[in-house]
Structures are given as structure tokens and as C-alpha cells.
């Protein structure tokens, strides 16, 4: 029987519930799913590579055919090096399509044997992105239900003291304290 190994590449800064939804779906249809975290030296990430690796390993520990790794350089080269024949990407809304199509076709030009497979996350994650999670958290908004509890806590630990105060709730009124 054919063994199909897929690569799910991304920045995962931070991992969101949408990413986990896609990982769970991918783990059901592929024999093996490698989540490849891009080591991107251009951007200053919120979470370091070791932090993202650790969080994703903990969050996917229950999925026995999922492996978490880091990569740098061309994604198609990394996919070949791990014998992945598919690339998994999520499409949330029509707005994702143009960018994803361009990337998929360019990757096909670079490596014609690698197929990109698109999957849709659950509707409740269709407006969710790591960038919005970072922005909301930095501005003192609630990121509950957008990221796993573990990630929520790690983000709170990183916020500056003024934002942490906004996130804290007054023990008497249960309302958010104003910074
Ligand atoms: O989570 P993201 O930031 O949308 O993921 C983008 C990612 C990592 C899939 C993409 O930037 C990528 O594959 N980068 C590796 C470098 C590469 O292969 N570039 C050519 C893309 S056509």
C-alpha cells in the first residue's frame, strides 16, 4: 500500500486553533504529517523557534502520525529531504486564494512532483490568523477561543506589564482592570 507523507509548512507564530484544526484534519487523511516551522530570519517573531517547536509538540502529542520540525530555505527542498509528496495548506476565505494559488504554482514550477492540497478549517476559524492574535493580545483584547489555553498563557507571559494589567480581572467586580 502507498504511504503518503505530507508537509504542513508555516510560521505558526503563534499556533492558533485554526492551525490545530487543520493539523487534525490532515492527520486523518495522510499517513504521516510533518508540521514544518519556517525559521525566518527576516521577521522578528513573537515566539522563538524553540518555543514554537515546544508548543506544537505538546499540542499535537495525541496525534501519533504528526511530527513537528523546523526548516529553513526553500520549502520544496525541505519537502524532498523528508520524502513528502504533498504540501498541506489551509484556505480560510477567498482572500487567501490568490496568494495560495501563486505559491502553489510557483512551488509546482520548482518541484513538479510535489502536490499542494488545500483544506478548509472549521468555519469558526475562517477569520482567525496569527497576526490578528498577536495584535489583539498586544492591545489588551481577549484571545480566548482563538488559541489553545497553553498558547494564551504563553502570550500573556510575554506581554508588557501595562497590557498584562488590562488582561487581569478585578477580583471583586470580575471586570477587566483599566491600565
Ligand atoms: O504561515 P505562513 O507565513 O503563511 O507560511 C508561509 C510559508 C512558510 C509556507 C512560505 O513562506 C514558505 O514556504 N517559505 C519558505 C521559502 C520558500 O520556499 N519560498 C518560496 C515560496 S513559492
Oligomeric state, counting identical vs distinct chains: single chain
End-to-end separation in angstroms reads 60 Å
Task: Describe the strand arrangement of the main beta sheet, using strand numbers.
Answer: 3-2-1-4-5
Q: What coarse outline follows from CA principal-axis ratios?
A: elongated
Q: Overall pLDDT, averaged?
A: 92
Radius of gyration using CA atoms only: 18 Å
* Main beta-sheet strand count, sense and barrel state: 5 strands, parallel
**What is the string of helix and strand elements?**
EHEHEHEHEHHH
Number of helices: 7
Number of strands: 5
Strand content: 15-25%
Structure classification: alpha/beta
What do you see in this structure?
This protein has 179 residues and is of the alpha/beta class. 41% of the residues lie in helices and 16% in strands. The chain has a five-stranded parallel β-sheet, with helices on both faces. The longest helix is centred in the middle third of the chain and has 17 residues, at 94-110. The chain is elongated and about 60 Å long. Residues 9-11, 38, 74-75, 103, 106-107 line the site of 4'-phosphopantetheine.
